[in-house]
Amino acid sequence: MFRKPDGKLGFSFNRFITSAVPNFANSSDRDMELSAKQQDDLFNFQIGLAEPRVLAEHSFYIAGVVENINQSPKILTSLKKASILSEHPDDPTVYTSRISKNFPNQMATISVHRQRKLVCMLFFWEEELMRWKLLDDEQREIQGLLDEVTAQGGRENRSREEELRIALGRVQTRKNLAPSARHDDGTDNRKHTLPEYGQGTGTVGVLGGALRRNGANGQ
After folding, report:
1. Of the residues 11, 67, 85, 138, which has the fewest C-beta atoms closer than 10 A?
2. Is the pLDDT of residue 202 over 90?
3. C-alpha–C-alpha distance, residues 155 and 17, integer Å
4. Which residue has the higher pLDDT, 205 or 128?
5. pLDDT grade, residue 219 (50/70/90)?
């Protein structure tokens, strides 16, 4: 990760890969990063899961890392075996610091091109997790203030209470925003109905659409 001029975090594949996996660096492969659509597809798929932050068996297929859906669970298993993803089912942490020169051997079931794309996907998801954590912190702070105001009661606190409830709703909205729907400040740049975080509404739709596009039997 590196800090961009606007203060946001960014990921440079070349910076990382030159030091971590040197034999990846000498490549002209320009299709390594997830496209905007692939980022949105992954986000919308994840947000429909019971544990939206934890990468699942089909996440790598949805993100376009592999074209065969049957390969996707194998990638998840390999990442857990390499300790890049946690074995604990409710731990979403992506340990990108553990990507090393052994990565090509650890992911030998997919091509070098797809290994590069996988690295970019992992860094993308790590950044999404960092974004969610910041929003969690903001949500807790607002909820704490709301609890205090509510406990105090009184007519004079009603407007303040309403303001805080609106602020909570805005944070929740920002949590639900797919990458392409965000302004630089994280607010909504489109008028549309957002998927509900963790409600299970997006999984079947996104996965089903991907299956129809690529063949329902994983061919």
Report:
1. 67
2. no
3. 59
4. 128
5. very low
Contacts with 14 (C-beta within 8 Å, 6 or more apart), sequence order: 25
Q: How far is the C-alpha of 55 from the C-alpha of 69, rounded, in Å?
A: 15
Say what the pTM is: 0.75
Using alpha carbons, select from 97, 116, 108 the residue that is nearest to residue 26: 116
Structure tokens at 6: 């606007």
Q: What does the alpha-carbon distance between residue 70 and residue 66 come to, in Å, rounded to a whole number?
A: 9
Task: Name the token pair of 14.
Answer: 């070349």
Torsion angles phi and psi, residue 127, rounded to 5: -65, -35
Contact 45, 204 (CB under 8 A): no
Number of alpha carbons in the 13 Å side-chain half-sphere of residue 3: 3
pLDDT digits (tens, 9 = 90+) for 173-193: 999 999 999 876 555 554 444
Among 124, 108, 111, smallest CA distance to 34 is for 124
Q: Which two tokens stand for residue 126?
A: 């790590």
Residue 47 has pLDDT above 90, yes or no: yes
C-alpha 23/C-alpha 5 separation (Å) is: 29
Q: Could you tell me the two tokens for 179?
A: 């990458």
Query: Using CA atoms, how far apart are residues 46 and 60, in angstroms rounded to an integer?
Result: 11
